[in-house]
Amino acid sequence: MSRSAAGLLRDLIVYQIYGANTGVGKTVVSTLIGRHFVGRGGKTRWKVHYIKPVQTGPVEEHDDRYVARFAKHSTSTLVKYPEPVSPHVAAKGSPYLFTDDMLVSRLSAKLREDARGASMASGHLGVTIVESAGGVLSPGPSGRPQADIFRPLRLPVVLVGDHRLGGIASTISAYESLLIRGYDVEAIVCFESGKLGNVEYLKKHFHPLGIPLFEIPKIPDVEGCSRQDEIDKMHSYYDTEARSGSLYSLGHRMVNRHVARLKTLNTLPSRTREAIWHPFTQHKSIQSSEILAFDSAYGDYFQTKLGEREPGRDSKTKYMPEHQVLYPAFDGSASWWTQGLGHGNPRLSMAAAYAAGRYGHVMFAGATHEPAVQLAESLLKGMENPRLTKVFYTDNGSTGIEVGIKMALRAACKRYGWDGSTEDIGILGLKGSYHGDTLGAMEASEPSVYNKKVDWYRGRGHWFDYPEVKMRNGRWAVEPPAGMEEEFGPVQHFEDINDIFDFDVRGHSPRYEAYIEGVLDKLVKEQGRKFGALVMEPVLLGAGGMIFVDPLFQQSLVRVARRYAFGPSQQTAEEEAQLDALSWTGVPIIFDEVFTGLYRLGRFSSGSFLQTHADISVHAKLLTGGLLPLCATLASQSIFSAFLGDEKSDALLHGHSYTAHAVGCHVAATSLTELQYVARSYVWHACRKAWGEKGVGEDVGTEPRSLSSAILARAQSRRVWSMWSPDFVKTISQHERVESVITIGSVLAVSLVDRSKSGYASNAAAGLRDSMMYELTDDRYAVHSRVLGNVIYLMASMTSTQNDLSAVQRVLLQKLKVMTAREQEMESRE
């Protein structure tokens, strides 16, 4: 995925000329704009350039030669194919392979070259016109639509409308295709349409949208003219029209919109500081210059502007060209763990637009719609958990956990005859866990920096200690908490991460189970406490600091929680007779898969790593591919049955205005389909192979979609793997500033040596985070990341390329080296 900087440059105004169709006169419009700026009056002198990214056909017919002849400025073509056919057809017969990334990188480099040339010329500003080939969705060399190929640059657009019969529809369709991909269409140009009335209609259509339409006289009829007469006529046409009112108005619009975009980016941080209350931010100390402004995002990259300071003149930012306003930064937090299929994914955008157009928002109480049912069926099938039969929708992970706790507590209270309104019913969980910011979800976690100062917080529950999985100095280990070797046993070392999950070899752990039962005996039998649920994140605790819990301990905890006698059952004989092997026992088990589920750890369900099934499972984050808020809480039939009764008050009286909103459900169903395709394809094959998995893709045909569900299931259940290189993980675990490393699926977390011993409040990782973002490498590679105390974590999307991840790994190692050298220098001075 291209990491080229978006095409916003300080001294260069860049516009992309798209056509509503082929043959609408894009090259003539490009020539008129270029010629206008060459001769535009005023103090500013304009340095104009024309770029044709892809050209097919004989050289003498190339558009750049035509523009050079009549516009009188420099031109260039980046990729040429001699055959006069569509680029995707021409590319098939060419020995030269140009990927989309190569094409975009070439164009980005050429724009930077133009910007340097403009900034070096005193009193000059630059204008570069980039003309596409064919229509908006005409295929490029790779076969992808051009609007998708060039989207990483997000150049502002002048759209050439279609003045011919049928042109109204094609122009509006082209505009909407650009809009749905995140382009700014700043103006529409259309040749005279005469009696067809295209111009008049399109003006009225686009006026409410704030997009002006500029009408241009028809191209002179040169049929039957000699070659010289044709050239003379066209020169006369361009001389006249380039100085016309329409072109001056269009030029004025292009300049003003460029200036306005720069102003918006420059003032966004200060406006934000005045009007916005940021999450997880101490506003007493934050400055406007510390606020990143995102202009856009595409693939795995943000397009960022640093505060209000001039890029390249910021003392913190190195190697930034003076003319470059935006630069790409790898989204190393996967946008708070939600990003799975790349920013600006056109399939998800179109899914959202379709559902918005079909439904808008429709209420869900006592009603239904296809997207909600389709998504529910897909989730239940994908989980492969025979206990789960029902799906309840909320709007985010925290509310999804909250409703899951409601479900579990009602079921437990009903079975044991407790009165939850007067008795204190607690939650069992793990130390360091955190399940969300709503009050009920916060109650299910021990006191932490997130909740202990929340005035209503009480913390209703007990949270178990547990052994952790870590890689230290190149070796995987399961380590007990300090001072708890008697309860959990000594440190255990493993040669391979898969050995940690090999329950056939590790077996049940009598020591773990004895510890868990001993704690429960003290709480329940000696202290008389009541518990209504076990809530935990399978394998990895996210917000608590990316803590990798020994999966055998979690499996043991579920086993004990299901067999333990938390109280005498108050069920009738009829109710007891309805219980079966899939009914919950002990206390209901809730798996918080908001972060860990839906392939974040490499599998559809992270609970599958524990080889046990939850009674309630909660999913969000990756559910909609990071596009919309939505959460699904999946429950078993025995949990559902606890809410059946003769009165409405017996029901689960929980809901939101946007419960199961159709747009979110349809996007989520689309996202799941795409994620499952990625899991079946060869996208992850190199990663799995690097981590020692054999057979995936080797015993099937070359067509990715031919992988059967049986092969997929076998591949998923057999090995644990990571998208991050095993050699890199081992190397970084041996660094002197690294305490330990964990990785699984798309997640990498590096715990730095915390010399301050301040734990979660440590700032040990903040300096490394800032260095990766602001102190750019020689090739201007930036990585945006988040930290949790002394832990810096990085997260790939499900479609991240190995090239991108290798670059991120290189940056992390380089910045660790720099940080260590600085610390050593400071220590020597002291």
Brief descriptors of the model:
Rossmann fold, Aspartate Aminotransferase, domain 2, seven-stranded parallel β-sheet, seven-stranded mixed β-sheet, 27 helices, elongated
CATH C-level label of the largest domain: Alpha Beta
Number of strands: 27
- Average pLDDT reading: 90
Query: How many H/I helical runs?
Result: 27
CATH topology label of the largest domain:
Rossmann fold
Per DSSP, what share of the residues sits in E-state strands of 2 or more residues? 15-25%
Query: Would you identify the CATH H-level superfamily of the largest domain?
Result: P-loop containing nucleotide triphosphate hydrolases
CATH architecture of the largest domain: 3-Layer(aba) Sandwich
Order of strands, widest sheet: 3-2-4-1-5-6-7
End-to-end CA span: 46 Å
Low-pLDDT sequence parts:
308-315, 695-717
Question: Given the helix and strand composition, which structural class is it?
Answer: alpha/beta
Domains counted in the coordinates: how many? 4
Can you walk through the features of this model?
With 830 residues, this protein is α/β, with parallel strands linked by helices. It folds into four domains: 12-263, Rossmann fold (3-Layer(aba) Sandwich), CATH 3.40.50; 393-644, 3-Layer(aba) Sandwich (Aspartate Aminotransferase, domain 2); 685-718, no CATH class; 726-829, Aspartate Aminotransferase, domain 1 (Alpha-Beta Complex). It is built from 27 helices and 27 strands. The strands form six sheets. Strands 3-2-4-1-5-6-7 form a seven-stranded parallel β-sheet, with helices on both faces. Helix 2 links the parallel strand 2 (45-56) and strand 3 (74-81). Helix 18 crosses helix 19 (551-563). The longest helix has 31 residues, at 245-275. The radius of gyration is 30 Å and the shape is elongated.
